[in-house]
Specification:
By secondary structure, the chain is α+β, with helices and mostly antiparallel strands. The chain has seven helices and 19 strands. Bound molecules: zinc ion (ZN) (3 copies). InterPro entries: F-box-like_dom_sf, F-box_dom.
Length: about 450
């Protein structure tokens, strides 16, 4: 029996589960499989699994081309990715843009951008901002198939800065970087310290290990050791970030770049000089769905808070927090997916025990005056919050008492008892619930 005699859904099942194999190469290597190219129904079905049912705005290319060249390789990009940029982190969201009369369809990667707060609004604007989506990279076909140098359809990757005209396209690059033990260290007057890795167990609940990488051959990553560069400067005037190997393994990751370096300009600016020569690594970010359970209903559990939340961290602006529930330890943890020079991405921002807690009367009054105002119902959990001086060096970190109040299924407040301050957290509900374009940070 030939493979081409198999029912097409069986063949499809085999093909879509092929690992990093180049599916196009496989099809051309076998004459029996080659005939499958003409079975548009197979490729249309395979494309429909990724939501592509129409190739009008993909230059009317065949579904064989659309699937094998674009979707099979790059559709795993669709979703959220968290970058390991030192201190700040960085988020990129990929989605499938079906295209329209003005624009060719593509897989588009958009950077999340938040406004940097002004000094005068650090006191009163306690509500987080929604992200702006800044186009960073596009993966697709040319608008006209006749422009392709080969009849098979060539996937083009380009960066999308506002300044680029159609005749002046920047080549973009998507690579899968191999696993690595490369780490970043901070060289300071009081010694050198490893910067928290990202991801680093056990604070890696945000990392979605079930999501696949694009089907590209991984680029090997040699580890860099810049320790010798520091020897002439044992006590630097200002802390410097440098590269050295560690014993913390990081899995394969995505790298996203433009030949002219445009993508770095989307990430927040870092105040520390950074000597590290390697590209930023992006990892799949878990987006836990939000169950519609009222937190004051009997069936509610702390696990229902799992997912991505946004909060306005005063002078640092809006940051993204992954809330994780550890059932065994009965603890609810806020993990920073993006961070700042005081408490960086990858660090714990707070950690509370979900056993019911009692308040003493003065705490109770303080909480009501500040954090709970008119709220009638809430759940209160006690724990610690992380603060640090700039640099997050081990001796700078402090763990101060906090009380977390669950206000609704989409709102938390964390009251920092020593500071007499509180932060509001709102669940990130996805981008469809709001207008997609805003102009306040352009
Ligand atoms: Zn490349
Ligand atoms: Zn560019
Ligand atoms: Zn904006």
């Amino acid at each position: 029996m030939k493979i081409s005699d198999l029912p097409y859904d069986v063949v499809l099942h085999i093909l879509v589960h092929l690992p990093v194999v180049d599916i196009v190469h496989l099809l051309s290597a076998s004459r029996a499989l080659h005939s499958l190219k003409l079975e548009e129904r197979i490729w249309k079905d395979a494309s429909a699994r990724y939501g592509v049912c129409d190739s009008t705005f993909l230059g009317n290319r065949s579904f064989y081309i659309v699937y094998t060249r674009l979707l099979h390789v790059y559709a795993p990009l669709v979703g959220m990715w968290a970058g390991d940029h030192s201190f700040t982190g960085h988020l990129i969201e990929f989605r499938l843009d079906p295209g329209d009369n003005g624009e060719t369809g593509s897989i588009v990667g958009e950077a999340w951008k938040f406004r940097s707060p002004e000094p005068e609004d650090s006191d009163d604007s306690q509500v987080e901002e929604h992200p702006c989506f800044v186009c960073a990279i596009k993966i697709g076909f040319s608008a006209h198939p006749e422009d392709d140098p080969d009849s098979e359809g060539l996937v083009r990757i380009s960066c999308c800065p506002d300044t680029v005209t159609p005749n002046d396209v920047h080549a973009g690059h998507i690579h899968v970087l191999s696993e690595t033990t490369q780490s970043t260290f901070l060289h300071t007057r009081s010694g050198t310290f490893k910067h928290p890795d990202f991801p680093e167990a056990p604070l890696d609940a945000w990392h979605d290990k079930s999501r696949a990488m694009p089907r590209l051959r991984p680029t090997p990553q040699a580890t860099v050791d810049q320790t010798s560069l520091l020897l002439p400067h044992p006590r630097p005037r200002a802390p410097v970030l440098f590269a050295a190997p560690s014993d913390v393994p990081k899995p394969a990751a995505l790298s996203i770049s433009c030949e002219f370096g445009c993508l770095q300009s989307h990430a927040p600016v870092l105040g520390f000089p950074n000597r590290t020569p390697y590209p930023s690594r992006y990892y799949p970010l878990r987006l836990a769905p939000s169950p519609a359970v009222n937190p004051f209903a009997r069936e509610w559990q702390p696990a229902h808070l799992t997912g991505l939340w946004l909060s306005f961290y005063n002078m640092h602006g809006t940051e993204c927090i992954f809330v994780d529930w550890d059932a065994a330890a009965r603890r609810l943890r806020g993990l920073k997916v993006t961070g700042d020079e005081h408490v960086p991405r990858g660090a714990l921002t707070w950690d509370v025990c979900t056993d019911p807690c009692a308040l003493d009367p003065s705490e109770h009054q303080q909480l009501f005056a500040h954090a709970l105002d008119e709220k009638r119902e809430y759940r209160l959990y006690r724990g610690v919050g992380t603060t640090s001086q700039r640099g997050f060096l081990p001796h700078q970190r402090e763990y101060t008492p906090v009380i977390l109040a669950v206000i609704s299924r989409n709102e938390l407040r964390v009251f920092w008892l020593d500071e007499g301050d509180y932060l509001k957290y709102h669940r990130y509900e996805g981008r469809s619930t709001r207008p997609e374009r805003c102009h306040h940070c352009e």
